[in-house]
């Protein structure tokens, strides 16, 4: 007996029968589950209070604050420069872009200029940071889906090569504290540019390998395509930024829009998704890495000689004139902004971080409703959160 | 694409929204990001105009935050003409004015469609010691949802019209507002093995003077 015969015999159209089988619309008891804060898929201490009907999510409320230390209050009670090492701890994967965002905002507030060589170093280190963030995110996403080990280890192997570069430049793998108002802390060590060129040249080979392993993988596609969909209108309204916004098809990249630093000098394309699902978010990041390589290759050739910090920029006794400034950059996770108000004293009167990963979580519930718990974990993984930044 | 000047925006908003009075807040820093001060009653209508106007289309609310200004005595040097010993002279005097404290909520608006911005919108409420309420803009921009919750959590500002106003970062039983400038840190008296009179008396310093319920 075919399915059609069966449904005819039962006197009901197919879709109704299907709905009954999977239990949608059936009166049943709802189950409340607290996923986290110790759940391995929450990338730290983050909790989702989920209400389930069977395995279908009917309500999801994210709960924050487990890592809250009031970064903003601490920064308001210390000098401008003393907050620089603390910005490393926001998104501890991408401390160099955090440094840049803060330095950029203070430079806007105080009207400082950045020397040419420092602009190049900033661009190069920021793009390297983007590479390592996106690589690791792909690894974590696969880990969340149950591909234990291999993809993450491949990602970490490559990340270590970039971290070696960053360590030889700044002295630290992750807590770099590298940028200063009006430039960078120190010049490139001898041989650094050649080592970076080598890493960049080999990176596209790694990406080919990584994509051969993952992008066409049947299980990956089955787990991610059509999962965690986000429409372009909702993404814009909810202030979603970064690869997640572009995966929903909205062309908005601050490297093009604001053209801060020297991004206007290098042509690169902005990959856009069409479906706004998890697979598109994964794919947009993969393509973004290839575009980053296109920026890095010429930038490493063009880097000029010269000072790395504006000699007029003061480290001690730095007191910007009263006023305010909002500076923002395209971090690997989205728009990272710093809003500063100065009252003429050595400490900022108001210091605010606009955390992209917190604001990207606004739509988590919308993405997960009507899907299963297993899909919620994949959706959360594709948002790319770091709790140091979410909770501040 | 160049955006209109803030003066032009102000004039158009005042023409479009009946009764709305905007004030231009100057910013003297090199960033030159001036802002528009809007009254709490008209904030929603003004914000809606800014979002829907075809020339502006500020569809993206990037940053929402609070700022706390305490009561302050501002001193200003003024040159005054005075008659000293029968001769008119110009004398410098320090003029002191008292400024009552106030709380502010600042919105940074951009346009993703037209790729311009920012337009900075501020709501200001005086009377820091009373429960203060501003208009929530979450119905217009979802991105304000968590950020307004954070401002409520850390500054104790209520948002009228917010769908889900709860604490975001501090725990639910927490009573004070840590980002306020007059916040007193707890003394960790709970860790005192036998919290006694003196310690308990000291702990009272950080008890809230008033309580705001969402």
What is this structure's SSE topology?
The complex is a heterodimer of chains A (392) and B (214).
Chain A: H1 3-10, H2 14-22, E1 31-35, E2 47-53, E3 56-63, H3 71-76, H4 84-87, H5 95-110, H6 116-145, H7 150-170, E4 179-180, E5 183-184, H8 192-214, H9 218-224, H10 232-237, H11 243-247, H12 254-257, H13 278-302, E6 323-331, E7 334-342, E8 350-354, H14 356-360, H15 364-368, H16 373-383, H17 387-391
Antiparallel strand pairs in A: 1-2, 2-3, 4-5, 6-7, 7-8
Chain B: H1 6-16, E1 23-25, E2 35-38, H2 43-52, E3 60-69, E4 72-84, E5 87-99, E6 102-111, E7 116-126, E8 132-135, H3 144-155, E9 157-160, H4 197-203
Parallel strand pairs in B: 2-7, 8-9
Antiparallel strand pairs in B: 1-2, 3-6, 4-5, 6-7
Structure report:
The complex is a heterodimer of chains A (392) and B (214). With 392 residues, chain A is mainly alpha-helical. Helices cover 48% and strands 12% of the residues of chain A. The radius of gyration of chain A is 23 Å and the shape is globular. Chain B is α/β, with parallel strands linked by helices and 214 residues long. The chains are: A mainly alpha (392), B alpha/beta (214).
